[in-house]
Amino acid sequence: MTPIDRRSMLTGAGFAGLAAALPDDVLGQALSGNAIPVVNTGSPTDPRPKHHIRFGVIGLDHNHIYSMTAAVIRGGGELVAFFAADPKQVADFQQRFPQAKLARSEAEIIEDSSLQLIAGAPIPDLRAPLGIRAMKAGKDFLGDKPAITSLEQLADVRAAIKETGRTFAIMYSERLEVPAAVKAGELIAQGAIGRVIQTINIAPHLVSPASRPDWFWDKARYGGILTDIGSHQAEQFLFFTGSRRARVVAAQTGNVNHPDRPLFEDFGDMTMSGDGGTGYLRVDWFTPNGLGSWGDGRLFVLGTEGYIELRKYADPTGKPGGNHLFVVDGKSARYLDCSKVYLPFGAQFVTDIVERTQIAQDQEQALLAAELVLTAQKNATRPLMA
Predict the structure, then answer these.
(1) How far separated are the first and last CA of the chain, in Å rounded?
(2) Are the CB atoms for 301 and 307 separated by under 8 Å?
(3) Side-chain half-sphere of 264: how many Cα atoms within 13 Å?
(4) What's the CATH number for 175-343+373-379?
(5) pTM score, whole prediction
(6) In the chain, domain spans
(7) Among the listed residues 1, 2, 4, the one whose alpha carbon sits nearest the alpha carbon of residue 206
(8) What is the pLDDT of residues 311-344, one digit of tens each?
(9) How far, in Å, are 21, 42, 66, 217, 228 from residue 285 at the CA level?
(10) By C-alpha distance, which of 105, 66, 67, 65 is closest to 85?
(11) What CATH architecture applies to the domain 11-171+345-357?
(12) Is the peptide bond before 146 cis (omega within 30 degrees of 0)?
C-alpha cells in the first residue's frame, strides 16, 4: 500500500468518495487546526430515525465534536445552537453546521428548556463540570472522552446522576463510531468466537506537535495518557468481555521522548481483570509519519472458539483504507471489509433520551471504564526508561 498523505487527501478532488468510507473519528483525530473535519453523515440505506430531539453544543476544543454532532443528527437530533469563545472554532463549526445559531453564552444553551441534550468537547478537565451543569438544568449530556479527568470529578458525576436522573454519556468513538468495532460486537454477540477470554488493544497516535493547543501538553488539563486515550480501550475491554465488575492489575505511564514537554505523557499501558475476562491496553504518541494515518489501532479479541483481529485505521503494506476485520474459528479464517457497516449509536442514543433506556450505552459501564483509567492513572508506576 502506498502511504497516504492526509493533507493531500483533504485537498484532493478524490477525497469525498474516500471520506464516505472512513469513520468520523479516523478523520477527526489527525486534522490540524486549519482543517474542517469530514464527518459521517450516514447512508441513504440507513434506517430512518425513530425519534426527534433538539440539542445544543458547548465547547469545540477537540475536533471530535464534529463526529459527535453528526452522530446525533444522524440519529434524529436537530442542532439548534452552539457556543464557543474562540473565533476560529466558531467559524469552522458554522461552516460545517450552518443550521445552528451561535448563542450569546453557555448559559443561554443550558437554560433553553426546549433542548433535551447538550453535547460538548471543551478542554477535558472542563467536561465533567459542564455535564453536571447540564444535568442539573434537566438535560442529558454527551461528552467527548475523557469526559472525566479525576476520581473526584467521577464522584461528582455519579452524585449528579443520582440527584437528577439524567444521563451522562461518553463518546467512546473508537468503538461506537468505528464500523469494524461495531461488526466485531455483532459477531461476538452471535457467538462467533465462543466466550471471550481477553482483549488486547494497541493504540498508537500521531502527535503532530504543530497542530496541538497548549492544553494538549498539560497532564493537569487532559488527565494523563491513560485517562485520555486509554479510556477508549478500557471501554472496549468492558464491552467485549461483558464485564460488569473490573479492577486494575498494573499500570505504567511515562514521558520517554518529549523532554521539552515535561507535563506530557507519551506512553502508557495497563492490565485489567474483569468478571467477564481480562484485558491489556497500550497507548502512545509514536505513530511514525510513514504510516499514512493517525494511528494503526489494533484490537485482538480472544475467545474459547476463535479470535477476532481488527485493523481499524490502516493495514500497512496490505489492504488500503481502514475497517479491516479478520476472524478465525474452528472452520476457517476469513476477512470482512466493514467500511459500509451501519453505525447505530446516534439513533440508539436519541431513542435512549426519549424513552429513558440504555441501549446505546450502559451508564454504569461507561463510568466504570472511566474509573478504571482514572485509578490506573493515579497509581501508575513509571517505566525505568522514562
Answers:
(1) 34
(2) yes
(3) 17
(4) 3.30.360.10
(5) 0.90
(6) 11-171+345-357, 175-343+373-379
(7) 4
(8) 999 999 889 999 999 999 999 999 999 999 999 9
(9) 25, 30, 22, 12, 12
(10) 105
(11) 3-Layer(aba) Sandwich (3.40)
(12) yes
